[in-house]
């Protein structure tokens, strides 16, 4: 399985970490309809126990209509916090967030209820949390339709359609306890889709499943995305999910850091190859996070030296300064000890790099 941090450029075998121009899934920046999910400088601070925890620290994320995206990150990186905000269950402390045209910071109570019933569908990690245990699979879907006041006549057909789409067509009469974990999660996806949401959000939907069941559930998300055009966002700590989606966004310490885009390319012999490219995320004010392994490999600390060439920027570690005697000699020759008169700017002298 490919991890977001170890993705390589298959054509060269080298790590491919080209900075992108932002968090849009389309690096070409072609004009398109407004994104379905848009977060800007999103902050969520919890201070319930007297200690402040900054779960989200200025997170930027853009998901276009119809995308199937995974957000991957370590435990505590802020994934669930992000998802509960996007589903309308929680409100951010600061920043901007919109989903399918709804401003999540400005929504009133009534709009929020409608938003959660009709605009977003949600799947939790715990299979038991998604379904009512005393109702069958079909009745669980029916309940979601009843709550949203869907017309009674159309309910039966809708339930059959959803069970078939999720490949559990013959399990409608079973209680959750009579289904495997993977089957329960597929029924949960059907319940979440009952009212035709524009967006499907899933928090660790495969966290309790073995590999085979995880694959089936992830295939279901792909089927839903392809057949219904639903925008799907899955958060997980399992970087293997990136093999099932076109785009994986890595979240680190409450901010998006890198993203992997998968695409199919045809080589000169006409053979198709799946290509995974990893990009660093560059936010609006020019911040990016260097991968931890790059930082340790080059022993970078505190500040780095930035350099601008015709078509790229270099980031170099700052080495120990030379001895005073050597420095005197360099000054006498008119050369700056840090690399000459045209030496690249250091982060310390670059306001953008320090912000
Ligand atoms: N209600 C809360 N009150 C206080 N702190 C919270 C609350 N919810 C989350 N946090 C803290 O915010 C940070 C991010 O938590 P979050 O649950 O979003 O992480 P996560 O990436 O989903 O982790 P995991 O993979 O373990 O589910 C953590 O430090 C967590 O302890
Ligand atoms: Mg979580």
UniProtKB/TrEMBL annotation:
<feature type="region of interest" description="Disordered">
    <location>
        <begin position="315"/>
        <end position="355"/>
    </location>
</feature>
<dbReference type="InterPro" id="IPR003593">
    <property type="entry name" value="AAA+_ATPase"/>
</dbReference>
<dbReference type="GO" id="GO:0005524">
    <property type="term" value="F:ATP binding"/>
</dbReference>
<keyword id="KW-0547">Nucleotide-binding</keyword>
<dbReference type="InterPro" id="IPR027417">
    <property type="entry name" value="P-loop_NTPase"/>
</dbReference>
<feature type="compositionally biased region" description="Polar residues">
    <location>
        <begin position="1"/>
        <end position="27"/>
    </location>
</feature>
<dbReference type="GO" id="GO:0016887">
    <property type="term" value="F:ATP hydrolysis activity"/>
</dbReference>
<keyword id="KW-0813">Transport</keyword>
<dbReference type="InterPro" id="IPR017871">
    <property type="entry name" value="ABC_transporter-like_CS"/>
</dbReference>
<keyword id="KW-0067">ATP-binding</keyword>
<dbReference type="InterPro" id="IPR015854">
    <property type="entry name" value="ABC_transpr_LolD-like"/>
</dbReference>
<dbReference type="GO" id="GO:0022857">
    <property type="term" value="F:transmembrane transporter activity"/>
</dbReference>
<protein>
    <submittedName>
        <fullName>ABC transporter ATP-binding protein</fullName>
    </submittedName>
</protein>
<dbReference type="InterPro" id="IPR017911">
    <property type="entry name" value="MacB-like_ATP-bd"/>
</dbReference>
<dbReference type="InterPro" id="IPR003439">
    <property type="entry name" value="ABC_transporter-like_ATP-bd"/>
</dbReference>
<feature type="domain" description="ABC transporter">
    <location>
        <begin position="37"/>
        <end position="278"/>
    </location>
</feature>
<dbReference type="Pfam" id="PF00005">
    <property type="entry name" value="ABC_tran"/>
</dbReference>
<dbReference type="GO" id="GO:0005886">
    <property type="term" value="C:plasma membrane"/>
</dbReference>
<feature type="region of interest" description="Disordered">
    <location>
        <begin position="1"/>
        <end position="34"/>
    </location>
</feature>
């Amino acid at each position: 399985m490919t991890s977001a941090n170890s993705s390589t450029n298959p054509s060269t075998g080298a790590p491919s970490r080209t900075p992108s121009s932002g968090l849009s899934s389309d690096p070409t920046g072609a004009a398109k309809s407004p994104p379905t999910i848009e977060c800007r400088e999103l902050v969520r601070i919890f201070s319930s126990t007297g200690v402040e925890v900054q779960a989200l620290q200025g997170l930027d994320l853009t998901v276009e209509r119809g995308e199937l995206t995974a957000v991957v990150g370590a435990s505590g990186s802020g994934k669930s916090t992000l998802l509960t905000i996007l589903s309308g269950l929680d409100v951010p402390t600061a920043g901007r967030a919109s989903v399918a045209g709804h401003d999540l910071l400005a929504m009133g109570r009534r709009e929020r209820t409608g938003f959660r019933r009709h605009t977003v569908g949600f799947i939790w990690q715990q299979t038991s949390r998604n379904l009512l245990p005393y109702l069958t699979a079909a009745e669980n879907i029916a309940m979601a339709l009843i709550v949203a006041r869907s017309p009674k006549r159309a309910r039966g057909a809708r339930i059959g359609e959803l069970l078939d789409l999720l490949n559990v067509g013959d399990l409608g009469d079973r209680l959750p306890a009579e289904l495997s974990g993977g089957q329960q999660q597929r029924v949960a996806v059907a319940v979440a889709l009952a009212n035709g949401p524009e967006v499907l959000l899933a928090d660790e939907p495969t966290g309790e499943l073995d590999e085979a069941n995880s694959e089936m559930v992830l295939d279901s998300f792909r089927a839903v995305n392809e057949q219904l055009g639903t925008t799907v966002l899955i958060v997980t700590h399992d970087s293997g999910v990136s093999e099932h989606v076109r785009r994986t966004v890595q979240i680190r310490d409450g901010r998006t850091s890198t993203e992997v885009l998968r695409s199919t390319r045809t080589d000169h012999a006409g053979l198709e190859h799946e290509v995974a490219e990893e990009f660093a995320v560059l936010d609006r004010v020019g911040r990016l996070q260097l991968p931890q392994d790059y930082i340790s490999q080059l022993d970078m600390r505190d500040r780095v030296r930035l350099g601008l060439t015709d078509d790229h920027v270099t980031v170099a570690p700052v080495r120990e300064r030379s001895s005073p005697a050597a420095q005197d000699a360099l000054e006498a020759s008119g050369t700056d000890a840090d690399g000459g008169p045209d030496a690249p700017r250091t982060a310390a002298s670059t306001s953008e790099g320090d912000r």
